[in-house]
Amino acid sequence: MVTFSKEEYSLFALTQYPFIEPSKVVALVDFFGSAEQVLNQNATQLRALNLLAPKFIPEILKMKDNPELKKQFSSILAQGIGIIDYRSNEYPKRLLNIASFPPMLFYKGDVSLVHSSSLLGIVGTRQMTEYGKAVLQNFIPILVKHQVTIVSGLAFGIDYTAHEECVAAKGKTIAVLAQGVDKSYPRGNQKLYDTLVNEGHLVISEFPMPHEKLNDRILFPRRNRIVSGLCDGVLVVEAPKRSGALITTGYALDQNRDVFSVPGNIDQEMSQGCLQIIKHGAIPVTKAEEIISELGIQLSESKQVKSAIKTQERVGAVFTSRLEEKIFTFCRTQAKALDDIIEHVSEPASFISATVTKMQLMGYLQEESGRRFVAVRNEN
């Protein structure tokens, strides 16, 4: 049996329970100081935080000494699946800046790719046409030439071809999977999966293997937020009006990422989604050089770090995400109702509520009467 630390196991256990949002896991770990300490609490202590539904607390406490779960974790590590804790230097910095980032990531391959200087998500329909394939064959060699790492979801169609063309162009690519990293999903892409794992690319997921209590309707949107969160921008190549690719662009916009869209024939079904998001502000592109130009002028990671430092100097607070900073800034002058915060920040209400709770626990927000919150300034 592969050995592991109590902290590694404890964080794994918390992240695998399907009814705790990732942001709440992070709030608990940050408040108690470690994942192990979260599992060391009793039911009364956890209920007092008002962070978890009472019916889930007994299930969570059973994880501390769960032999089956420990055996599963040991088996995952024995398969050569790597783990990344959100508190480690290996964790992708871009991903830390999104709401409800995964507290633990699982991977096979070259994990250093998450720190590439430029990452572009490429998404689109599974029913790719020759037009979509031609766009990828034209764009990707140029993107690779400029050291852009390509991120996609290893699905059929646009995703598969984006990875395949990147490998052919001798670039680097990251596949983000919804169903875990232990094997390819869909199964028909196993050969490409093996190539990515064994030839210097990366396969990554917030789950090590398929999750029996979560279905695809939940898992794929969760995967999509990681695709966009890892990247500086997202390119939609082909998509009908109702497409999972458009969910990814929604996350990208919420995460302040650039969204690019390839215009297509107005009579073609697979162009309707692309044309729709252009109407709503996506950047139309007809050649890869336009993406290169936009990526070159967008806010760089170093500037984000400088911005965070300035915020720290200004208010005496160190934030782990841009969402926290936005909430803090909004509540600086006067107490704001939770509904007003949700409307101002424009993130899912569940993410905001959990983040507000975390910021209370960390002493950055104070609740006043009527569920109103005001920022607490640290003058030290």
Residue runs with pLDDT of under 50 for 5 or more positions = 297-316
Query: In one word, what is the shape?
Result: globular
* Number of separate helices: 18
Structural class: alpha/beta
- Helicity range: 40-55%
The total beta strand count reads 12
Strand order of the largest sheet: 1-2-6-5-4-3-7-8-9
Mean pLDDT: 85
Q: Which CATH architecture of the largest domain would you pick?
A: 3-Layer(aba) Sandwich
Radius of gyration: 21 Å
Main β sheet profile: 9 strands, mixed
CATH topology-level name of the largest domain: Rossmann fold
Distance between the termini: 49 Å
Q: How many independent structural domains?
A: 3
Highest CATH level, the class of the largest domain = Alpha Beta
Q: Percent of residues in beta strands? A: 5-15%
H/E element string? HHHHHHEHEEHEHEHEHEHEHEHHHEHHEE
Describe, in plain words, how this protein is organized in 3D.
The chain is an alpha/beta fold. The protein folds into 3 domains: 6-78; 107-297, Rossmann fold (3-Layer(aba) Sandwich), CATH 3.40.50.450; 301-375, Arc Repressor Mutant, subunit A (Orthogonal Bundle). Helices cover 47% and strands 13% of the residues. The chain contains 18 helices and 12 strands. It has helices at 6-16, 22-32, 35-40, 43-48, 57-61, 67-78, 93-96, 130-145, 158-168, 190-198, 216-229, 244-254, 272-279, 288-297, 301-315, 322-330, 338-345, 349-361, and strands at residues 82-85, 104-109, 118-123, 148-152, 173-176, 202-205, 233-236, 258-261, 283-284, 336-337, 365-368, 372-375. Strands 1-2-6-5-4-3-7-8-9 form a 9-stranded mixed β-sheet, with helices on both faces. A 3-stranded antiparallel β-sheet has the order 10-12-11. Helix 2 packs parallel to helix 18 (349-361). It is globular. Mean pLDDT is 85; it is low at 297-316.
